Amino acid sequence: MAEFIMPSLGADMTAGILAKWRVAVGDTVSHGDIIAEVETDKGLIEVEVFESGVVERLLVEEGEKVPVGTVLAEIGAESAAAAESPRKADASHRPRGALAPSPAHRAGSTGPAAAPGSIISAGSSDVDLDGPLASPAVRRRAHELDVPLEGVQGSGEHGRITLDDVQGVAQGGAAPAPSSDRIRISPYARRIATERGVDVSQIRGTGPGGAIQANDVLSARVPEPRKSMPAAERMQRAIAAAMTRANDEIPHYYVEHSIDMGRALAWLRETNASLSVSQRLVSGVLVLRAVAHALRKHKKLNATWQGGEAVPSAGIHVGLAVSLRGGGLVAPALRNTDEGSLSDLMARMTDLVARSRAGVLRSSELTSSTITLTSLGERGVESVTPIIFPPQVAIVGCGATLERPWVVEGQVVPRPIMRVTLGADHRVSSGHQGARFLSTLDRLLQDPEKL
Amino acid sequence: MTSDEIRSTLLTCLTDVAPDLADEEIEDDADLRDELDLDSMDILRWVQGIHKALRVEIPEEDYGKIASLNDAIAYVAARI
Questions:
Q1: Which chain B residues have a beta carbon less than 8 Å from that of A357?
Q2: CB-closest option in A273, A325, A349 to B20
Q3: Is omega for the bond preceding A176 within 30 degrees of 0, making it cis?
Q4: Cα nearest neighbour of B36 on chain A
Q5: For each of chain A's 451 residues, which pLDDT tens digit applies?
Q6: Could you tell me if residue A210 is left (phi over 0), alpha (psi between -120 and 50 degrees) or otherwise beta?
Q7: % helix / strand / coil in chain B, to the nearest 5?
Q8: B40 to A354: CB separation less than 8 angstroms, yes or no
Q9: Nearest CA among A254, A255, A257, A253 for reference residue A418
Q10: Quick one: DSSP state of residue A146?
Q11: Interface A:B, Cβ pairs < 8 A
Q12: Which residues of B touch A272 (CB under 8 A)?
């Protein structure tokens, strides 16, 4: 048995909405299959599973927002599924997104960042036996309607409270539970809770008989504002939080290098002139490929920081920083950026940029970057001093390619010069190593036909 | 093909590249890069869309001649 959990799709993500299940209980899944869609501030992300087996239980309903690390589904071995009992076979007819019998089975905390659609071994489960059985969506609705969940009789499986149950109580159509089960709270504490948007059903009272007092409410976590904040602003805040952490935790160093792009651009013009419109290349793909090839020689920069040490990455997966027109930024990975033809890389880059802006990315693309490349050159910026995106240990920033006076063989001539900056983690590499990386990058861009 | 028909086709190609622009009032003289925030990848995809829709091929050295929607309409009209 393995667990399919809400993945962390970047250092700036703490929770996601399970937008859609693409499988039902009983379906057979294979490594790499997309089995769910998760809505994040980065858009709708297709989440892959990284283990083969049979979907035994779907634990989160479509539309629920759950923290990173929450168990979304359980995947059983295929052989076990073949021998499953008739009762389990019945479960396979449960509609998509329906909850499995044992519900409150959640990680319940953000925990360590998880791999995309991670399967983690099923060990001790964090079953929450406290409080009524209800999904986050139901709890949210109950809070909105000021319906104490303790006073609702659940009509779902195993007494689970449904949205209809909550709605019924709110409309006076269902009998509340005995008064002994109701939340004991002072009028003043309830007023503060309402003002602060705190769900009193989640508070354990410290007053007489467990009654909730004002201090209990004041010390409770205030839910994050959601619907009122535009998506772009939410994303910007999440990015800011991640970058603040990166600045606090990573000892950055920076080295800068000016690269003469004359040969690369001349080769690009000549090549594009012979290609059909659909096959044309942009200069960005040359830089992208050159970064990937340079990393083959400078492996220390192609790693992630995990558990207090740098872990070298097996593949070179350059994350491409893509600005979103409405605001915000994503940096999905172009896997194995150093492999395949340049035209293939161009096609993949075009597709990735288009899907980034359409808000349709895959979880593996948001979590597998081993370094990030960002460019603001097209907006005239001369150089970029980027912040490393954890858990990566390096980032490359490109400025504009500008005609500058340049000395070539003793003569001052105009040359198209691009300033490239490497930001790297001093725990993993030194400025000297960073400088050598940029030197290699420069050399590679002088031989564009080899990229 | 009339100028209005060309404009409509170019706009369709443009909103394929940048769907969010469909909700905006695009001024025909607006600079596509500076005012509409298109980058070189967007421009290439737009040129590819125009080629597919109208069979007009725009070489790289002519990108400067399609800096705005008006420019592009004139460019395409002369070659269609």
A1: 18-19
A2: A325
A3: no
A4: A325
A5: 888 988 888 767 778 889 889 999 999 998 888 999 888 876 778 888 888 899 999 999 888 888 888 899 999 887 654 444 433 333 333 333 333 333 233 333 333 333 444 333 222 232 333 456 666 566 666 776 777 776 677 766 556 677 677 777 776 654 444 343 467 777 777 777 766 667 777 788 888 778 888 888 877 766 555 455 677 777 888 888 888 989 999 999 999 999 999 999 999 999 999 999 999 999 999 999 999 999 999 999 999 999 999 999 999 999 999 988 777 889 999 999 999 999 999 999 999 998 888 888 888 898 899 999 999 998 889 999 999 999 999 999 999 999 999 999 999 999 999 999 999 999 999 999 999 999 999 999 999 999 9
A6: left
A7: 65, 0, 35
A8: no
A9: A257
A10: T
A11: 39
A12: 60
Instruction: Give A-chain residues touching B58 at CB under 8 angstroms.
Output: 277
* A357 and chain B in contact, CB less than 8 A: yes
Domains delineated in chain A: 2-121 (2.40.50.100), 183-227 (4.10.320.10), 231-450 (3.30.559.10)
Mode of pairing for the β-strands spanning A43-48 and A360-362: parallel
Does residue A446 contact residue A263 with C-beta atoms inside 8 Å? yes
Torsion angles phi and psi, residue A167, rounded to 5: -60, -40
Domain positions in chain B: 3-77
CA A36 to chain CA centroid, Å, is 14
Contact across the interface for A280 and B44, Cβ inside 8 Å: yes
- Domain B3-77 has what CATH class? mainly alpha
> Are residues A277 and B41, on separate chains, in Cβ contact within 8 Å?
no
Does residue B58 belong to the interface with chain A, where contact is any CB pair within 8 Å? yes
SS3 state at A152 = coil
Please indicate whether, in this complex, the C-beta atoms of A284 and B57 are within 8 angstroms of each other. Answer: no
Residue A392, Ramachandran bin (φ over 0: left; ψ between -120 and 50: alpha; else beta): beta
CB-based contact A81:A54 (threshold 8 Å): yes
Q: Taking a contact as any Cβ pair under 8 Å apart, which residues of chain B between 11 and 40 contact chain A? A: 18-20, 33, 37, 39-40
Distance in Å, alpha carbon of A188 to nearest chain B alpha carbon: 47
ipTM score assigned to the predicted complex: 0.87
Structure tokens at A75: 């995947």
Task: Please list, residue by residue across A358-390, b when 16 or more beta carbons sit within 10 angstroms of its beta carbon and e when fewer do.
Answer: ebebbbbbbbbbbbbbbbbbbeeeebbebbbbb
